[in-house]
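Acyl-CoA-6-aminopenicillanic acid acyltransferase
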Amino acid sequence: MYTFVGNAYERGKQHGRALADAIGDRVSRTLSPDMDAAERIRIAQPWLDATEELDADLVREMDGLAAGSGATLAEIVLLNSPEAFKALESVEKRGCTVVGVTTKDQTVIAQNWDANPQRAKGLAVHQHRDPQAPDVAVLALPGGLGFIGMNEYGLALVNNDLFGVQTARTAPSQAIRRALLKLTDTSSAVSAMLAIAHPTVRSYVLADSTGALAAVEVLPHETPVVSTAATTVVHANHAVAPSVRAVEDRDIQESVHPSSAHRARRAAELMEQSDEESDQQGRLRRILHDHKGFPLSICSHSAPPEESCTVASVIFDCTKRQAAFHLGHACEPHAYEVVDFGATAPSAAHGRGAHGGLA
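Predicted structure tokens:
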């Protein structure tokens, strides 16, 4: 676990210095050597400009990352912008299974984060402590802003890769995720998601300490589809909402993640079977461990035709404001790394309201 403290640039520079070798390795693995410096700048510029409009502090953080690691700002931007590349050309293809539940006593969301294990080298928990923004804990790769996480208010976010036929040059989704985690609750986060542009199709599940649970599927050039009525939610790597399915590239989805439908059905089945359980953390943890359909199960193990497997799992207890991270297969008996935001009261000075200054 890494902890970065200070303003955006300072935290980025600390991150860059601590992980300079790993960032350089990731740049060399992710970006083609045929792409010269001018080409990297040309591709990165629209994503950088859109991030500046969304949240200038995230650009400052990436600038600090570049300064600390020795990479260029364009390279850091591209590490955080997989949407800049065609889905089948991306070397960091990822699958995931998400589950969530809210009851009168407990609200928990959880995810198995699946990736090619060679491409997930250096995956770790990053804590960001900024005097001007909520403290946040995210799962991130070296040089990355973060994939999934929770902030000190108990607002948590998990998400799934989907595959669309269109891409818009907006702020990349990793920047969007970090911007959302500067908000205080699910309602303001959903409002922000409705107000901003999204680069491609993606599904999100958000929850907070009040018990509010939301599932959101976003798509470029259209209004996101929001569901807040359910007390449980499951999602894998295929779209559910008809308007999102209409722009989904099913051929790519089924070639990259053919297990998606099985994982979603199995998660829903296990949620229904465990409906009477009172320990929601334990309930979701057991679902993340499931091996039905092995090796392409909820706890996924590498096997053709899928390149990815479960390399991390998270359980975010929004009621307790506790974020638990487990690196490796969900079925492995390693201890979770726990960030306990519930041990202290959140700072009133850190919160942002609806839209939170997001573009």
